[in-house]
Design goal:
This protein has 344 residues and is of the alpha/beta class. It has a domain of 78 residues. Strands 1, 2, 3, 4, 6, 7, 8 and 9 form an 8-stranded mixed sheet that branches. It has a 3-stranded mixed sheet with strand order 5-11-12, with no helix packed on it. It has a 3-stranded antiparallel sheet with strand order 10-13-14. It is globular.
Length: 344
């Protein structure tokens, strides 16, 4: 989930003195920049009255931050429909919803078994048990859903949230951290289980993944689904080679050293430990990510090692997608007159 704040026209919806704690993590920004955006953005207290939103249907906001978790479905749908009309062509709505009761592990196991046409229950159970085994190496990256104090507000299961978003004419562009909702990532080390999950719907896949990784929640707190939403008809987004990649929670050298000899990265996604494959060249690229070099700079440096542009694009695309899914990679852009980078 990458948001170029330096170039965004931003609207904050809902009264709040400062950004909720999940905003900085979900947008993968430095906290100071989030506060700056919070202070400079247009504002609307739409928590009680939609009439306070901008009336221009062509308002063209690039980022709309919903400061408070989504309300009950009827009110939330009306709000999302109204906000959708205020987005620019590539705009996103960043929203949070309190987590409803996720499916338990037994239900996930049962669901995977039902989707396995020629497998025994013991095979599925054995794979599932291996998924829960302690990792052989310390996790290089930890991804977990954000939490907030439990205020007793409306809660959403993943199917309920998906239905709400669809009813509002939107699509979930990216949940944060995506790894908690991506069963293909969670089951990367268990291809048999992944095959069992192949016939699940998109909503079922998200729900199964979340149930597998959901962590213990301290008393008095509740988990949050954090999602970026876009109109279902919106064009695909793209990022430019002048973006500056930034690592979060680890350095490039530490990331490189954590990789196994066969190019797997040990990670913890909520309650699940797994090993995610990275391209072999990722070991050499990671130490070059220093928060100053652009993607184009990385490509030029790899070219001196015999990696052509097409090869770099493939390697970088795979590596960046995995790290972004874990909330470990964000981007910055050079836009200020003095050439200093701004975080995005």
């Amino acid at each position: 989930m990458v948001v170029d704040v330096a170039r965004l026209r931003t609207l904050i919806v809902g009264a709040a003195a400062g950004p909720p704690s999940w905003v900085a993590d979900a947008v993968t920004l430095w906290r100071d920049d989030v506060i700056n955006v919070w202070e400079e953005a247009s504002r609307s207290d739409a928590g009680t009255c939609l009439d306070t939103l901008p009336i221009d249907d062509d308002a063209g906001f690039d980022l709309i931050l919903c400061a408070a978790p989504l309300d009950a479905p009827n009110g939330a749908q009306r709000l999302l429909e109204r906000l959708s009309g205020l987005l620019s062509v590539n705009g996103v709505i960043l929203a949070a919803a309190r987590v409803g009761e996720p499916a338990n592990e037994d239900a996930v196991l049962s669901g995977l078994f039902e989707k396995a046409p020629a497998a025994s229950k013991e095979d599925v159970a054995g794979c599932f048990a291996r998924l829960r085994e302690p990792p052989s190496r310390a996790a290089a990256v930890v991804a977990t859903p954000p939490v907030m104090p439990d205020d007793g507000g409306p809660r959403y299961t993943i199917p309920e949230l998906s239905a709400l978003v669809e009813a509002a004419g939107l699509t979930i562009d990216d949940p944060y951290p995506r790894a908690c909702y991506d069963i293909a990532l969670l089951l990367e080390s268990q291809p048999f289980l992944l095959d069992c999950a192949a016939n699940l719907s998109a909503s079922e896949r998200r729900a199964a993944a979340f149930a597998l990784c959901v962590p213990e929640v301290p008393p008095g707190e509740t988990l949050l689904h954090v999602v970026s939403l876009r109109p279902a008809s919106a064009p695909a987004r793209s990022y430019d080679a002048s973006a500056i990649p930034v690592l979060f929670g680890c350095t490039g050298i530490a990331l490189s050293m954590s990789m196994t000899d066969d190019h797997f990265l040990p990670v913890r996604i909520g309650a699940t430990a797994t090993m995610l494959p990275l391209p072999p060249q990722a070991r050499g690229i990671a130490p070059l990510i220093d928060g100053r070099r652009e993607i184009a700079d990385l490509a030029r440096m790899l070219a001196t090692r015999g990696v052509n542009q097409a090869q770099f694009d493939g390697v970088w695309g795979e590596m960046a997608a995995t790290l972004q899914a874990l909330g470990a990679l964000g981007f910055r852009s050079r836009v200020s007159s003095d050439g200093d980078p701004r975080t995005s």
